[in-house]
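Researcher: We plan to redesign the surface later, but first we want a full-length starting point. Tokens attached.
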């Protein structure tokens, strides 16, 4: 019997529609082989929604997201909407808040055979496999912002329950990996970080099988490029997680390869590549859809179909090892050609497994 899932697709802006299209096409092949009934419904979100509805998150889009089993997003934003009363990013913040998506998971893993694509020495990155668990609905991004002509301030607030729930996500994830959590803060300066560290230590007592260590954010930033293999799961707050995960994204060779999942306590979640909308190359078929396809794989994992997710990742890796690479990886393939190569690998896998 087929498993049925309702998937809301938010293609977004810039290269978002291009990479999302390739990911959805790959999902269609995976669905056919693994007897999944994936029903996709596209909705406006971000800048395109401002153009069409005057709001980056129209009520119809929000309602669809609430009822979906999962949300697959491309990318949003661009200079066109930078001065809009409600910019695209405000829509994303609201969507996370409305759906209670408090945990952002950003994995970065060096693929065997792709070590030479990293800007770091191969011996530094070989075997590196890091998961950043970022708190997503607190901190500076959601605090009060005051801007005056000569003075400005941004409020950073965290509560014990907010820290507890994201810490549990990190420790549970570590149990499925190498059982090490590195909590990143700035507890030598910031009050919120002092609370963060104390609460994380309290939560750690419930996971005696997981090793906990602490790093200040500046030391963590240095360690990511000096010795990325020292990390298993990085647990951190909103701003630090945003910065560190972008730094980490370069290590496998390109930000275009990496996906993310934003999860809450309810069903489903939001899955998106971590790159931006890249308006400078939009419409040129240059964008790497690998991150969107990885996001689709993370979605399948969350929906409880890990075998389908594994097939998708294996197809991406096989295409890359075969030399099908977009410009960000030093290749000449278009985004469409990369998507075709991944789907060819999926079809080959399906034939071998049938």
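Model: Full-length starting sequence:
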């Amino acid at each position: 019997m087929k498993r049925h899932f309702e998937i809301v697709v938010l293609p977004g802006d810039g290269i978002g529609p291009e990479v999302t299209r390739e990911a959805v096409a790959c999902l269609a092949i995976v669905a056919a082989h693994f007897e999944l009934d994936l029903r996709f419904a596209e909705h406006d979100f971000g800048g395109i929604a401002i153009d069409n509805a005057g709001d980056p998150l129209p009520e119809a889009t929000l309602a669809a997201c609430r009822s979906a089993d999962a949300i697959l997003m491309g990318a949003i934003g661009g200079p066109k909407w930078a001065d809009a009363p409600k910019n695209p990013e405000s829509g994303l913040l609201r969507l996370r808040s409305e759906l209670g998506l408090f945990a952002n998971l950003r994995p970065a893993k060096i693929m065997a055979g792709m070590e030479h694509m990293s800007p770091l020495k191969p011996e530094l990155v070989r075997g590196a496999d890091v998961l950043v668990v970022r708190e997503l609905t607190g901190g500076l991004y959601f605090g009060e912002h005051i801007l005056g002509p000569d003075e400005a301030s941004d409020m950073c607030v965290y509560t014990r329950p907010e820290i507890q729930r994201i810490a549990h996500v990190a420790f549970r994830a570590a149990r499925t990996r190498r059982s090490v959590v590195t909590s990143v803060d700035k507890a030598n300066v910031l009050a919120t970080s002092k609370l963060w560290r104390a609460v994380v230590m309290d939560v750690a007592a419930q996971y005696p099988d997981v090793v906990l260590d602490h790093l200040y954010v500046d030391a963590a930033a240095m360690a990511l490029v000096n010795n990325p293999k020292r990390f298993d799961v990085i647990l951190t707050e909103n701003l630090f997680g945003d910065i560190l995960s972008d730094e980490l994204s370069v290590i496998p060779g390109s930000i275009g390869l990496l996906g993310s999942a934003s999860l809450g306590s309810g069903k489903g979640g939001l899955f998106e590549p971590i790159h931006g909308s890249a308006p400078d190359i939009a419409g040129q078929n240059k964008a790497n859809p690998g991150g969107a396809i990885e996001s689709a794989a993370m979605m399948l994992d969350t929906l409880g179909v890990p075998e389908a997710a594994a097939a998708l990742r294996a197809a991406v890796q096989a295409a890359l090892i075969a030399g099908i690479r977009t410009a960000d990886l030093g290749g000449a393939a278009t985004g469409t050609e990369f998507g075709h190569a991944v789907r060819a690998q999926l079809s080959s896998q399906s034939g071998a497994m049938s």
